[in-house]
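Internal ticket - ligand job 333, nicotinamide-adenine-dinucleotide:
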Amino acid sequence: MRILVAGGAGYIGSHVVKALCNRGDSVVVADNLVTGHRQAVDRRAKFYQGDIRDHGFLSALFQAEPVDGVIHFAAYSLVGESVTAPLKYYENNVGGTRVLLEEMIRAGVKKIVFSSSAAVYGQPEQVPIEETAPTCPTNPYGETKRVMEQMFRWAEQAYGVGFVSLRYFNACGAEEGGAIGEDHRPESHLIPLVLQVPLGKRAKVSIFGTDYPTKDGTCVRDYIHVTDLAQAHLLAMDYLAQGGKSDIFNLGNGVGFSVREVIETARRVTGHPIDEEESGRRAGDPAVLVASSQKARAVLGWTSCHTALDDIIASAWAWHQAHPNGFEEEGRS
Ligand code: NAD
Ligand code: UDP
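stdout (structure tokens):
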């Protein structure tokens, strides 16, 4: 297939680009590099630097590169920033998706797989969370993902664009080859921040809240390996290509680990003592987010290969050890 990957220079997008190239798909990447890295894009893919909010850029791109479908990652995704700058998030995440949809419709492209998030659920009433659970985001970031999903529902009805929304839980790890991995700036995710301690880049890791109603008082999350996420995008695109109906799928391992358990596992994997400090809760954090991915298994035939937290953290550690400055040492940040 010929696939346009919007946001394909980012963490998850670059892993999907590589997986698509590996199976012989023809891949075009569109990315404005606001948080992504040019070096993360597989050399077999064609790269266009530009912004999905730019009608002219996208319309020329669709003309030059006829594609069968789009996989869409391009968004801002810092929960804390979304609380202080919500309109920035609506403008890029919702506005960018609107322009992308308009240009897809103009170009006659009728299939899209896109990144949603566990953040659409907010504080869940039940875990593991099924796709039918109420969506009540606790921050503007999650709200923009919910709005995007609704936009796709209405656009499908009006224009016949089939979509798959993938609600990821906590993406982490790096591909086995060691060429690409996580390099967010600023970094806000727990596992890379924990690993910055043994890398000598941070004295200690903060634990955001120790009074949650969980096994050890710290937040519990479902950590899912980035290459398992990547495979789900390929399956979702195949599903649409085979006439599958538009739908929403959770992607997680179905097992929750607390912040303390993540830090303890990182100590074991790295062999380094990792200092921690207890600090207050981070605004907008639900206590427990654990996915039921039964639907993705049943409908898409998806399975996750990396279920042990030790292995997931070991793959992240291998990347960070080999690239302590992320993609910076390879030319630019
Ligand atoms: P990322 O920031 O590494 O990747 C996003 C990419 O999109 C970057 O390369 C960025 O340069 C690009 N981009 C942003 N706005 C753009 C625009 N207007 N035009 C063109 N390119 C643009 O983030 P990620 O961690 O890889 O996440 C990818 C997607 O998955 C995001 O939509 C995010 O909300 C979602 N998500 C991520 C996680 C996670 O744990 N990382 C969890 C759930 C959902
Ligand atoms: N967290 C933490 N210290 C940090 C970063 C994160 O205690 O320095 C916690 C955070 O409060 C959440 C969990 O780790 O409960 C996972 O956070 P992350 O930002 O990685 O992902 P999120 O669950 O917010 O998508």
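Auto-summary: The first strand starts at residue 2 and ends at 6. Residues 249 and 298 are 10 Å apart (CA to CA).
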